[in-house]
Amino acid sequence: MTAVLDLWRNLTRSRTEVEAAELQEEMRGVGVVPIRECQHGAFVCVTGIVRVITVRPTAATPALEIEIYDGSGCVSVIWLGRRRIPGIATGRRIVVSGRLTCSPNSRVIYNPRYQLLPTSS
């Protein structure tokens, strides 16, 4: 019976749900915590795909902001004082570690350590 239910779930899932499940499975292989399970104030290590890159060229403090998605949720990563980091591009897989700050509508890690994961060819 459970095999039939699993088959039904797989056949009726949207493409977005399928991609999210595949990404979560891939990210589990890296050995990090899913973004949705991270707690405010904790030192976290997360990985995912860069979905958005924003440069905030204010006169006072420039900032490079990216959004990382791991299939379970999103986190914004902000490097203050940077306009560009070589190798960071949309679609790139990345691991970041730092202190997580949460508000009701967002999760942010400021100035984290990062590692770019190899691109698949």
What does this protein look like?
This protein is an alpha+beta fold and 121 residues long. Helices cover 21% and strands 40% of the residues. The protein has two helices and six strands, in the order ααββββββ. Strand 1 (43-56) and strand 2 (63-69) form a beta hairpin.
Summarize the structure.
The chain has 121 residues and is an alpha+beta fold. The protein is 21% helix and 40% strand.
What is the 3D shape? Answer: elongated
Percentage of β-strand residues = 35-45%
The biggest beta sheet reads: 5 strands, mixed, barrel
Mean pLDDT: 84
Named CATH architecture: Beta Barrel
Structural class computed from helices and strand pairing: alpha+beta
Number of domains: 1
How many helical stretches?
2
CATH class: Mainly Beta
CATH superfamily: Nucleic acid-binding proteins
Low-confidence stretches: none
Q: What are the defining features of this structure?
A:
single chain, 121 residues, alpha+beta, OB fold (Dihydrolipoamide Acetyltransferase, E2P), 2 helices, 40% strand
